[in-house]
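Section: Multi-chain targets

For targets with more than one molecule, the full set of components is provided together so that the structure can be written out for the assembly as a whole rather than chain by chain. Components appear in the order listed by the source. The example entry contains two components.
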Amino acid sequence: MAHCFRSLIMALGLLIGVVHAEETLVVASTTSTEQSGLFGWILPKFEQSTAIKVRVVAVGTGQALEIGRRGDADVLFVHDRTAEDKFVAEGYGSYRKDVMYNDFVFVGPKDDPAKIRNAASALNALKAIAGSGQAFISRGDKSGTHAAELRLWKEAGVDPKTLAGYKETGSGMGPTLNMAAAINGYTLSDRATWGAFKNRRDLDLVLAGDPVLFNPYGVIPVNPARHPHVKKEAAERFAQWLVSKEGQEAIAAFRADGQPVFFPNAKK
Amino acid sequence: MLATLSDALLLLGCFDHRLLEIVGLSLRVSLTALLIGALLGLPLGAWLAVAGFRGRGALIVALNALMGLPSVVVGVLVYLALSRSGPFGSQGLLFSPAAMIVAQSVLVVPLIAAVTRQIVEDAWREYAPEFSVIGIGRPQAVMLLLADCRFSLSVAMLAGLGRAMSEVGAVMIVGGNIDGYTRVMTTAIALETSKGDLALSIALGIVLMAIIFGLNVAAHYVRCWATRRYG
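Its structure, encoded as tokens over all components, is:
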């Protein structure tokens, strides 16, 4: 049955010319790396030096980890350190390596009604937003950004679910920014997606720079012991290239909206 | 809005290579799904139109209901089936155009079958006495009715094509919207919207509408030509 099914699909695929034979690698990654244009910048360089074709599935970190858990990707490139360590500890990933970081930024109305532009810390900013009753748009999608946001609320000692202005979009960074722009609310974004985002309307970057807003990205090859079909060598080469001198320099040279948004930090 | 329209014309006008690739994949995936939908849906609908068995009514209701099958639900089901941890996982079809064809076929088959069933059943009611007089059996009658209703059935095909080309929920999940590999018109529009580039989204939407319109115009002329030629 399964064999017939495969033959049928392959035959159809050949018929319409969509089956390729070259070596390919499936990378499950986040919307921030794809939508900021980072992949469009670094992948051609990787593909040229290794002759491996990379296919990126860009989703939230939570979903990317789930794709890895099911064995549907060969390597992950994500940003939620706690969840990543759990993924490796459970045996789904071979190891995790630091690749780069960017930071989260508070985005909000230009006139800043909650007055967080001069807040002493990110936690104070959240408390001010909570106290002001202003709208705060949350990802609500178990992404890396959502996990970071929930961690910050917890540290600030505020339960966001009790706030009248707290809205969860359950979607990616882009749709969340679209909603924040539409209702002129605050949100937490990674710097790269904000940098490449076009529909800003009255939104502005209102607060950044607190060390708690640090946002590290790691690369994790999916464990071949758990999923024997994964492309072990290609995944390994991808992970090694990202942390190599060449990969790190490519990341450092990337610009979104004229600004550097990702900073390489692989350990030597 | 004017600027958006000119964007769309510019996109079409300069025949951007990547746009052509995306349009090409949309057409390949949806037309293949339509072909599968027709190969399975037409016989299924025609058989159901003339068959008599216990539970036929329930099957017709179920088939009609499946016309409203949410594409995102199909996406999740096909995802689970084709995932490496699913029953067809060993084939490695997830995140490929083949997976998108499977998902769109699942959406199109019930639609074509349900509409075909109604059209053929109406014709069957009309001709059944004559068929029995000249001694034509049901299997042969089904073939005759399908041929006779071909112009009405072409609308079922166009509805199927529209359903396949316009859906985004299923192909996004099972295709993964991979740049240069599984990105089609609808997922590209969703992506540009999420990047906040609303003008480009609308421009792509206009291009997609133009393609669907073009296909319908082509179908219309084929039908006119066939009517003149074969009556």
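Chain B is about 80% helix and 0% strand.
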